[in-house]
Every structure is written in structure tokens, then in C-alpha cells.
Amino acid sequence: MVTRKEIDATSGTETTGHEWDGIKELNTPLPRWWLWVLYATIIWSVGYWVLYPAWPTLTGYTQGVLNQSQRDDVAKAVQALKSERAELGQKLAAASLEQIEANPDLLQFAREAGKSAFGDNCATCHGSGAQGFKGYPNLNDDVWLWGGKLEDIKRTIVVGVRSTHPETRLSAMPAFGRDKLLETAQINDLTEYVVSLSGAKADAQAVARVTTLYAEQCASCHGADGKGLREFGAPNLTDKEWLYGGTREEIKAQIVNARGGVMPTWGQRLDPITIDALAVYVHSLGGGE
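User: That's the sequence. What structure does it adopt?
Assistant: C-alpha cells below.
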């Protein structure tokens, strides 16, 4: 039995015999150039299987004639980079912080290394741009609880804040409300006093009522003028920079609960070169003293 070819009347092309909703499929061959490209990719893949690692086996994979390994290539590249940086790394380890900042090559190297270490270890809390968040300090400004000089920054990185190092930076503000050290009325007046220190409009009568109480309970750390004492890590209450927020509600919440964050002791986690690089990087962000 001979099957007659069906030719589409409009296009003059043979059909495949398939039809959907009255629409017949044309048996249009692929362009020859497209077929040659397909054949070339098949040939290329066969050559790739022979030359490079390809087929999985029960014990690993076929190594290929060239015995090439991307893992080995990466390892070699990393080792080459380490060798390239070894000389600068040794100089960085031997130099003081002041010498690093005085040497343009070392300074650039430290900044780049510090930026990388910051992204790996610090950006989670301080932000990728070190801009900080509520409860996490902004490292770009000039507000430093423990000092913004290069050696101060390094010291804070090494010992941490309220952390596990024996000499960690430690400040402990009393929770005046939670521990019932002050009455609610006193806390409300003290809130007004702190608001007044930053130059905002406050209840003058409340400020007058609590002036003596501030001197008795707060001045020993924050200073009689409210500008803070760095030896205690006490913040300046007059600069309108607030770690936990500067609204009345937020200031009162801090007086009541005395929130305090924890910064890890990086001296027990990072090598000395990385710590120096981090200190230089943070100092170079623009807020270092």
C-alpha cells in the first residue's frame, strides 16, 4: 500500500499528517546551517569527554587525557595570590599602626585586607557600608564610646565589648526601671532632662526637679555636662546621636532597661595581621580620630 504525500495547498509544503483543530503541521526541514552547528556541538562534546574530566564513576570520575582539574587550578591561583601578598603581609605584621598609615603601599594593602575581613566578620551587625543599625554603632561618624584613634579601635577589636576577654570593654548602665532603682515619676523627669541635654524642647519643671537626681545617679559616667566619659564607655548625651533611638519613648526605654550590646572578642578569633588591617580599615572610613 502506497501512502500518498499530502501537500499543503497554500505553502506547497508536504504535511506530516498531524492536524490540530483544523491546523495541519508542515514537514519543514531544519536549515542546513543549523544542522551543521548541531553536528559540530556533538563532535565537540565527544572531544570534551575525551580531553577533560567528564563521566562519573563508582570511585570518582574520568580524568580525561589532559588530566585538568578546576579545583587544582583554584588552589594554585589561591597559593599564587598568597605568595604575592606574603611580602606585604610580613611587612604589615612587623609594622606598627602608625608605620602602616605612613606607608602608602602598606596602607592600601591593609585597607583592602581589612575591607575583606570586615565583610566576612563585621558587616552582619555594622552593615556592609559600616553604617550601623539601631543598637549597632555607625563606624563612619566621629562618635566613639571608647575612643576613635587607631590604637583605640584596635583595642576594641581585640578585647570586644561586654565579651569574654578578661580586659573586654565593659560599661554597665543600671536598669533604673526594671530593677526598681527609681520610681516612674523620677524616670519620666530624667527622660526630660536627657532630652534637654541634646538641645530639644523639654519640660522645664521636670528638668528642675531631677537635676540633683541626675548628678547623683548619672553624672559619674555621663559627666556633669552630659558629654560622657570614655573611661566608662558612657555616651555623650548632648550630640543628638542615639544608638537605640532619640525619641522620648526610646530614651525612656533605655533608662528603664539599660540595653547594652555585645561585640565579640576578635583577638581570640582573628590573626594579628587581620586585626591590624581591620583597625586601619575602620579608621579610614572617615570617622576615625
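The chain is about 50% helix and 5% strand.
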